[in-house]
Specification:
Elements: H1 15-31, H2 42-48, H3 53-56, H4 61-65, E1 84-88, H5 94-103, E2 108-113, H6 116-128, E3 134-138, E4 151-157, H7 166-176, E5 177-186, H8 196-199, H9 202-206
Parallel strand pairs: 1-2, 1-4, 2-3, 4-5
Bound molecules: S-adenosylmethionine.
S-adenosylmethionine binds next to helix 1 and helix 5.
């Protein structure tokens, strides 16, 4: 068993209850980012996970203050001019806007999120940053509103850990990715099995 890859099995948790709790939490991150959370946020987090100052230059402070990722999708490589990008769980928009700058006027970015307050924030931040090659769509990551094979690159930051069915989301990611495209995901991994009773604990999911 030790060297065998383990596949995350779907967790039996009420999806509607979980989504509502996640939306309540990230509505606060959008509208009240200075409140203090049990995870890092904002510019301080960007420093911790290694975002370069040059990536943040010109990005609206409103997107930066609601940053709540768990890693750095650009640590795997910066994006190239002209690439089409999907940001799964785009939150306040920081990664989508950084990506939009990297891919330039000939590239396109689609951010997808289920929390209306995050979408409002991301759309406002795009305008404030003078970025017009990023758009934000309201949807679940389990059903991405993007055609098959559209994306050259799929980025995501701190979001995959929030779905009870990771295989379903990964299948959906591969559906929208063109053959030979790239996944650049920053997220949380555990090396030990999470106890079954902890998986039922909604409060443990949202943070
Ligand atoms: C930890 S935040 C990260 C946001 C952003 N990627 C960032 O790095 O700042 C998680 C985001 O995922 C979104 N989210 C969680 N579950 C989702 C789902 N099933 N479908 C779509 N979005 C989801 C939340 O609304 C929230 O904006």
């Amino acid at each position: 068993m030790e060297n065998q890859a383990r596949v995350a099995q779907p967790v039996d948790v009420d999806t509607d209850t979980l989504r509502k709790a996640i939306q309540d939490e990230y509505k606060e991150v959008a509208e009240n980012p200075g409140k203090g959370f049990h995870f890092h946020t904002g510019r301080r987090l960007a420093g911790i996970v290694g975002y370069k100052d040059e990536w943040l230059t010109g990005i609206s402070e409103s997107a930066i203050e609601s940053f709540a990722g768990t890693g750095n999708p650009f640590a795997m490589g910066e994006l190239a001019a002209g690439e089409k990008v999907v940001d799964v769980g785009s939150g306040g928009g920081i990664d989508s806007l950084i990506a939009a700058r990297m891919v330039g006027a000939t590239g396109e970015v689609v951010g997808v999120d289920m929390t209306p307050e995050m979408l409002t924030k991301a759309r406002g931040a795009a305008v404030e940053s003078g970025i017009d090659n990023a758009e934000f769509r309201e949807a679940y990551m389990e059903e991405l509103p993007v055609p098959d094979g559209w994306a050259d690159v799929l980025i995501s930051n701190g979001v995959l850990n929030l779905t009870p069915d990771k295989q379903k989301v990964l299948r959906e990611m591969f559906r929208v990715l063109r053959p030979g495209g790239r996944l650049q995901i920053g997220d949380i991994m555990v090396s030990r099995e999470v106890p079954a009773n902890a998986k039922q604990e909604i409060a443990l999911w949202t943070g």
